[in-house]
């Protein structure tokens, strides 16, 4: 199988620390040929640091170059996911786009449609799918240990975790707050356990009290006067088959833990908790609590990049697909709509 | 102040163990004059045990007797709350009725209206209102420690707590399952922190998988073939002022704890957890976790009976009122309706 | 089924506190008609206390009386198990004999042979067989959870638990020390998991250093000058199918825990620990630790007496049989022989 | 004292990471002059890495060279311990040989005899002898704190620790499995506390169920189809003075801990546990538990190499001697013989 | 030895619950012949309850009666210890007086002098001397384990333990606050470890902020307006041999623990903590922490009453003597004087 | 503001690891121009390591040079604090002097007077003032959370922490032992909470038993034969306003913890503990325990150096002033005097 040519769009931290190292590790399958950033100096510095041949500040120029990539890693800001992904697909590139898929349902749907018509892989970088705990959860579901899952509590809560850097509080750029940045991860995991169906009923509330009031931050200080997004979101999703998800996510909330990321999954045969992975079931007529004390840590970005390359190569993959991304984005939009009513 | 004359209707455990001892303890304010049960032998045995003068198997006979009571403790089955309470009010008695208020919203509303027109106290026995933790929660709310409460997670979960006795799985008698028996308690507490407003939007799901499948019980064994009610209920309530409640209740659920009864309360100034009572706020520019290690246990039934007598005597009282009971019953009905849609 | 008539031989604590209450609880199946003790005053006092009709100080007299019993509970000292059990069998009584079966292999073998020829039930009171943990261990073995068991570590250790009363340090009466009194229990459990086979090789060591030196006791003080038995015994048993048991038992040993009673069971599919019951296996390709947090306590003497009555009535029973007792006693004897070589 | 000249035979990990760094640290007493490995490239690479002058792929050539060593560190595979050690002794070198001494009792005995006749030091690298805990155990024994030791439980257990590299499952090369690789360490420590006497009775069982079945590994994956050695061994050793050792060792066993390496030592005055070091005794008429919270970690290989050099220089040393190695190897052989009977 | 005749003076709780039951338990040595209280009804009720023959409301009458006691238990209020003890001694009775000895140094000194001249036993009821922990501390001191003690930290602290009953806040009756009621106990223990010497230098501070401010009580509510004594006292005592004691005692202090009663003892060989008893020393060249996990609880009042009777019978006794009581009272007085300067 | 020129006097560890890195970090405000040490080689090596231009072995030469410094960091031995600080002030330099201020009260007083007359900043490097815990303690005091502080327990205890290097046991150089080296830190913090008043009464004891006896060290080994200072000091300080401090400090003491550095602060409204910072108060009529789980670690030397530069620049600063240093030294002297009486 010939090596695929990859290009990075967006020169931020996530390109530098996550995507490029993962691609480099997979050098038998993929070669990073170019990096493209609005700021050509940034692009060049990053290219030098990682020994990448080309740097661009204009993606179209890159597509026209001799080193036209086969696949794009889209690491731009949320509101640029759509234009850069569309352009890449138009240029017949596979795309691994950072999460969330887009900032509107319409965008994500169009992106999925173009990918389909172009017969290119469009995928989203929900790397938490690759944790050993989530892999084990899926195995337990597949083997019938859990029975049918009918309720999930999904949480991604921070006590005072409004980032003091980047654009996390800017609604135009981010498209939203805690839900768009954090909740989206855990919602993706929960949906994955329910065949990624579309809920038929959603009720949600969003808040911004702490974000607008300001105070002590645990991820740097934020500017309360520029806080435009929700700092907390609580939603109930009900599915056509009567399954349900309770989603709770926050940048800031007066709760004990600094960070609380978890799924509680309730099935007809057993329940499970994601972190640390535990099963609550029955055996020999008695109730059981089962722990898995020896799960091994893995590099989840590396695994997710592998999964994307597998998809590009037509192999089995658990990557978040363009279609899943479109469903997810539609749910997010409906959560915001419910909260605004 | 002359002593009030009390009569008990219903000769079960809750009369014997909770209400009569509490009334006896308050003998300066109240005298138990009669006990009334469908089964006259049961009534008489209970009367003898507690040195109560009269035993009846017909309430109307009691109302016509010389010892006509001033107040009734209604300890009958859920579906008899309505007829016996209505009859007591018609006979100009105050009523302390066991929870839930009734088995339909219409019943609870009529009960409240009759009490109002008769100018009698109708109250419900939600004794968890009297725990030192809930009292402290209310004090912290009143003093501004919490700021405005905007979200509450309310839980009354049992892992395998379908009672193996009584009528807990019979829908006709009970009116419902976990929500009607357990969730109602914690929902009452949550509503009490939000001025007992009516939510304008409700989305809920109910389940009966474990109840119908049977298995190991931790409160005796139940007959899975006669399981007619929900074993779990999850609901999201959204209020006109954008506050929200997430309610989770179960008789049976594949979760770790045998029993998990709690409120997590999120306010603009601080958050609080009910059990054990804890505050999560800020002080001197730093985040604080505050515990209250010396709360004293109290006899909550005694306190609730006192609160009822205070209401009868026209004094301040934190008892659950007829109006609150009507609101609560309406919410329960809407939760069931949402789940059935 | 007519009620069986039971008589107690031996008027000590274990009759008073364990056997008579259990029999009384099972009064639908059995009636205690007499109690027999060397000391007629003791016999009479016990009979009065428990409302038993007859008291004897001579067993033969009892067998000749009108109230001849159907079954005997033999609660005499270890060295009297043999004569009183033989006499009871000769008188066509079933016998539930206290542990250990006897003080020599020959005795236990003769007792089993006589019971067989008389077609009477002879059983031994190893009540630890009835703990919920051992029941669960057997279920897990039967269901294949454990696979084949190939090694067991069996422990009944006390740090300073030489009883300061009774005859526990008298070799003539007891037949031995820690092994005869404590180890016998846990060895019975271990053998029960290995089809109660006879080991073909045994190597053991016994000690009496602390017993003879004296010192601080945690179960009263003992007289070091009269200490005639082993205070500790360590044995390795190897079975024809290559399974093995490591047995450790002590009255006194310089170890941390005051009391340590446990089985560690190693099977081809999983391992298990008896107290608290835990499984160590594999699930979904990962190693698991499973706890059973809700085992209910039960009255193990009551269960064992039931099991004996079941056997007497020809029903299925997990009581320690006469044949098992004979095997057990032979193993004990071989352990002592190995230690003396 | 002139510096000794050392040569390493065997170019594996243990030479690279343990022995050479220890020798380098002791450069005032010893100089590493050569490294010898079957693979000359490996030898040279290692020599370069550690600035060692000479590299050989033939030991005899080394002995003939100008830089003939005074001492040899034998880091070859188990089945090469014998030939390379014999050849070194014949060339009048002291030898520090990796553990186990050899793969048969006969080999270890011959090695000891040649060393004696050549008046050279032959020692084995049981570096656990140098842990602060074992040093302290010996001090407590010497000072009488423990009294006489009469029973030792010695454990070196892994739950799933069959190494996924090297030759650990190859019987021809290794001579055995868990006992030869792991148990030998803890047995050496136990024997050291009992004057390194020879037991007069041994009973043992060995198993290979998990090793042959395969499954999840915690030290890489192993090839179940090539598993030729025991995965677990349980042995009871009885000594002429009635002391006893219970030895348990495993590569794979269904037990809770991933790794459990310990000695429980029972003496007439007190008991002790090795890890963490604790004493269980009596003081002022009361039972005591004593901890030693401030033991300092040390470099145990460095200490063991020092001990070897002390022996070479005729100074006092606690290194495992050739004679001890021969006893140890004979015990191992008898354990295997007992298990095979 | 003939039985001693005892009389109780003072009809409060401590007579009823502590002293009379202890004397009754020791009925082979002592007979309670009379009880004397200001309130004759109280005296008679107590006498009836405990089957004591005589009740008086006038001690002199009792001394003149036929049943003249041999010994007196003085359970009166602090300010009555002196007159009733003096009168008892004048009547040739031994006296066991409740703590503190008196409310002034002069009183305690006179009491000791009269006891000496009358050759009667005067003792004080410091029953904490009889705890197994303090007994063990003394044994460790006597055996040299501790070496010479040079510093003691003595604490009897309560967070909010101002009793809501009795006269604990009345200076005239009690003579002082936390020091007089609580600190006196632990100071007695500390002095007992230093040969009950008299310190030559004392520096102290006392406070009453919380007592006078009022607030939440954990031993009932107190009347802040009548709080006349110290709520906390901190003192440093320096002895002629350079030993020192740091004494801290409080009825109310803003500290974590509800109650903290302890001694930290620093000796030249080892340190010790009283509760739970622990030793911090050296063994085999390493630092040790030693616990005593099996100390048995005992009835300390019974032991102290025994100790008093032993003293009356001229036997060895560890009771607090009249001379020790005089020293203790003098120290207390000097502490108060230092705090007032 | 022009950059200040700094010079270091004393070439030891504290210059190399603490002061120079802090100054380098603050290079916008300060430039290190020279380093001066008795040993010119040491001075030069340090200068080279940190890229400092000049090295001297004579301070006067430095003052005469072109690069005359504006400020001096005095890192000399305790007994040289006085001469080098006086000389620096005479040369019109600001001085940050290591702790303790000096070895006598007279020295520290003269230093303060000269600094005042020269209008130069003289400050002492008590860097524990900058911990987030102490900053928070001061905020809680300032905001009234604590009310008035009336008692402080101040501890800096080591179990076996006599340093095995430097001059810590040499009285001439150090001026004292644990108090001079360790206690001085925690005393400075305590005084800071009490407006740095002078106590009017002091009682203290000092000891040297362990130091002179020798034994196991946890900070290297010390030479018991050269131990000239106190290994432990206990003092009680009483202030004119009746506040009090209990100070305990040790190099060596038979206590559990290896190191115990803390303040317990008792105020009229609440108490506080420094490490980890906790508040014990009242809220809503209940007692509270408040933790601050998210305090961030900071570089305390950097903060203290900043505070010193602020003082030099006439800005607000919480540095230990010359006047405070003089008070502190006077207290230390009085503690030693009290102990010697």
Q: What secondary-structure arrangement, pairings included, does this model have?
A:
Six copies of one chain form a homohexamer.
Chain A: E1 4-9, H1 13-25, E2 30-36, H2 40-49, E3 54-56, H3 59-64, E4 71-74, H4 81-90, E5 94-97, H5 105-118, E6 122-124, H6 132-142, E7 149-158, H7 171-174, H8 178-192, E8 201-207, H9 209-213, E9 232-238, E10 244-250, E11 259-267, E12 271-273, E13 278-283, E14 286-291, H10 300-312, E15 320-321, H11 322-340
Parallel strand pairs in A: 1-2, 1-4, 2-3, 4-5, 5-6, 7-10
Antiparallel strand pairs in A: 6-15, 7-11, 8-9, 9-10, 11-12, 12-13, 13-14
Helix pairs in contact in A: 1-10, 4-5, 5-11
Organism (chains A, B, C, D, E, F): Dyadobacter pollutisoli
Domain Gfo/Idh/MocA-like oxidoreductase N-terminal (chains A, B, C, D, E, F): 5-126
GO molecular function (chains A, B, C, D, E, F): nucleotide binding
Features:
homohexamer, 341 residues, alpha/beta, Rossmann fold, Dihydrodipicolinate Reductase, domain 2, 8-stranded mixed sheet, 7-stranded mixed sheet, 15 strands, 35% helix, 25% strand, nucleotide binding (chains A, B, C, D, E, F), Gfo/Idh/MocA family oxidoreductase (chains A, B, C, D, E, F), Gfo/Idh/MocA-like_OxRdtase_N (chains A, B, C, D, E, F), Gfo/Idh/MocA_Oxidoreductase (chains A, B, C, D, E, F), NAD(P)-bd_dom_sf (chains A, B, C, D, E, F)
Whole-number total of structural domains of chain A: 2
The CATH class of the largest domain in chain A is identified as: Alpha Beta
CATH architecture assignment name of the largest domain in chain A: 2-Layer Sandwich
Order of helices and strands of chain A: EHEHEHEHEHEHEHHEHEEEEEEHEH
User: Given the structure, what is the number of helices of chain A?
Assistant: 11
What's the rounded overall pLDDT mean of chain A? 97
Coarse structural class of chain A: alpha/beta
> Radius of gyration of chain A, rounded?
20 Å
Report the span from N to C terminus of chain A.
Answer: 53 Å
Q: How much helix is in the residues of chain A?
A: 25-40%
Question: Quaternary status of these chains?
Answer: homohexamer
**Unreliable stretches of chain A:** none
- Sheet with the most strands of chain A? 8 strands, mixed
Beta-strand percentage range of chain A: 15-25%
**Shape label of chain A:** globular
GO molecular function, one term (chains A, B, C, D, E, F): nucleotide binding
Protein name (chains A, B, C, D, E, F): Gfo/Idh/MocA family oxidoreductase
Domain Gfo/Idh/MocA-like oxidoreductase N-terminal (chains A, B, C, D, E, F): 5-126
InterPro entries (chains A, B, C, D, E, F): Gfo/Idh/MocA-like_OxRdtase_N, Gfo/Idh/MocA_Oxidoreductase, GFO_IDH_MocA-like_dom, NAD(P)-bd_dom_sf
């Amino acid at each position: 199988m010939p090596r695929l040519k990859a290009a990075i769009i967006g020169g931020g931290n996530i390109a530098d620390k996550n995507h490029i190292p993962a691609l480099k590790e997979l050098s038998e399958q993929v070669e990073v040929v170019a990096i493209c950033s609005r700021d050509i100096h940034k692009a060049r510095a990053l290219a030098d640091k990682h020994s990448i041949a080309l740097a661009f500040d204009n993606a179209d120029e890159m597509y026209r170059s001799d080193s036209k990539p086969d696949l794009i890693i889209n690491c731009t800001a949320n509101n640029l996911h759509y234009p850069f992904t569309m352009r890449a697909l138009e240029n017949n590139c596979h795309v691994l786009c950072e999460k969330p898929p887009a900032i509107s349902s319409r965008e994500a749907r169009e992106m999925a449609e173009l990918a389909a018509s172009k017969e290119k892989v469009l995928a989203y970088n929900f790397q938490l799918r690759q944790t050993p705990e989530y892999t084990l959860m899926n195995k337990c579901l597949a083997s019938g240990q859990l029975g049918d899952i009918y309720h999930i509590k999904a949480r991604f809560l921070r006590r005072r975790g409004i980032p003091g850097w980047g654009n996390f509080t800017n609604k135009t750029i981010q498209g939203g707050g805690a839900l768009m940045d954090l909740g989206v991860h855990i919602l993706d995991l929960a949906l994955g356990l329910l065949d990624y169906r579309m809920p038929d009923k959603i009720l949600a509330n969003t808040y911004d009290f702490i974000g607008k009031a300001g105070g002590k931050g645990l991820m740097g200080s934020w500017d309360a006067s520029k806080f435009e997004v929700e700092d907390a979101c609580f939603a109930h999703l009900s599915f056509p088959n009567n399954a349900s998800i309770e989603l709770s996510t926050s940048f800031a909330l007066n709760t004990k833990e600094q960070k609380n990321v978890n799924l509680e999954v309730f099935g007809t045969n057993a329940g499970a908790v994601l972190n640390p992975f535990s099963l609550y079931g029955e055996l020999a007529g008695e109730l059981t609590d089962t722990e898995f004390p020896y799960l091994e840590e893995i590099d989840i970005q590396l695994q997710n990049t592998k999964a994307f390359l597998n998809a590009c190569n037509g192999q089995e993959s658990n990557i978040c697909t363009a279609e899943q991304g479109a469903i997810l984005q539609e749910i997010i939009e409906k959560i915001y709509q419910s909260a605004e009513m």
